[in-house]
Amino acid sequence: xxxxxxxxxxxxxxxxxxxxxxxxxxxxxxxxxxxxxxxxxxxxxxxxxxxxxxxxxxxxxxxxxxxxxxxxxxxxxxxxxxxxxxxxxxxxxxxxxxxxxxxxxxxxxxxxxxxxxxxxxxxxxxxxxxxxxxxxxxxxxxxxxxxxxxxxx
Amino acid sequence: xxxxxxxxxxxxxxxxxxxxxxxxxxxxxxxxxxxxxxxxxxxxxxxxxxxxxxxxxxxxxxxxxxxxxxxxxxxxxxxxxxxxxxxxxxxxxxxxxxxxxxxxxxxxxxxxxxxxxxxxxxxxxxxxxxxxxxxxxxxxxxxxxxxxxxxxxxxxxxxxxxxxxxxxxxxxxxxxxxxxxxxxxxxxxxxxxxxxxxxxxxxxxxxxxxxxxxxxxxxxxxxxxxxxxxxxxxxxxxxxxxxxxxxxxxxxxxxxxxxxxxxxxxxxxxxxxxxxxxxxxxxxxxxxxxxxxxxxxxxxxxxxxxxxxxxxxxxxxxxxxxxxxxxxxxxxxxxxxxxxxxxxxxxxxxxxxxxxxxxxxxxxx
Lengths: 153, 365
Hints:
By secondary structure, chain A is an all-alpha fold.
């Protein structure tokens, strides 16, 4: 019971934080994301694309924008669930985060995942091949925005 | 036992075909130097390649493995340092395979062996039972304390020489947060030699730690041993975190009695001249994170030890160590350290001037 209350408070806090941070994105998209157990490519693409191009309105437009700008791969199926490492790679590319030496050389999602783990945005015990929940994805996005706004990369 | 390990390896590899592993590793190279006289300095280089793989088993557990190749001078070793299955059943956790484990003191037994650990954890009470066999480890990688000539370190560069055979058991009862954040641990450690009863070792340790006031913490432990004779070791430390530069200031003292001996090799002196036997070590230390990418730590030790002339405990040496880790990117770190042993008892032959240091670089992938 106490755990449920904590979750509700955490999600509500996250919602308020994102309403301020991601002002270009609709509250509906954030609400839907919070409730998502496994984030889809098109869903993630919407948050990434609107961070760069706020005029984008639909998930289809967002996915096309991400493919065109190489934020995600061309083969990404819109409704396929993303893995944590794929999501980490998308975040690194969208927010222009600098990685370590291995990421700089390969630009691989595997090293993007390691980089976000090193920054403390992803849990040390997380499985890179597991799907990512909407609330966890929003926490990572918020951390990336905070880092970029603070002048860090 | 060796057949069991082989079967486990084959099973592990077969499962790896069915699942996609997460993996990584590190490449590191370290140049060490040491000098016992002002004019001669000796250098040595060691290269280590470590790789690991991990396969989650749903939400209940995982399979992990780690191995390394080490080259130091003319000596090369290839070793499996971790091969473990972990399963969680609510508050009960089961670990089995090859993995590291330490007793409550952290000094007596702290090594990798083949065995299993079952633990139960709750907010107020934790209990665990650990059992392992030490005889399948590579003695080039694990160092036992010599006891009645039982241990011979591996000498041939490529030969894998097994460590001494002991059946190890650790029973532990702990209270992680009984009152005011205080943590209490009681554990019993037994190492039974299948060959010679006189080489059996028994230890009991009581340890406690927690906050004294805000930002000030302590640890305290006392260990009784029985290796044909009763022995004692006690240690305590106080650490203050001032809240700036991620800094910590610490003071620690360790006493090991005349009949005390640890299982794994180790001791207070930088040059390895002293073990945890009839020795007192008083240490002060400071650590701070500078310029967001550099961690600097400085320790100073005043050591008293048994002198070989009349077997009485006298002041032995003062030593310091300055170490720094520079990590400008997440996967590359550079470490630099320098230390010196300054003899106090110049009549003792067991202590001589000693200067040591190292420069290392490590890349994680």
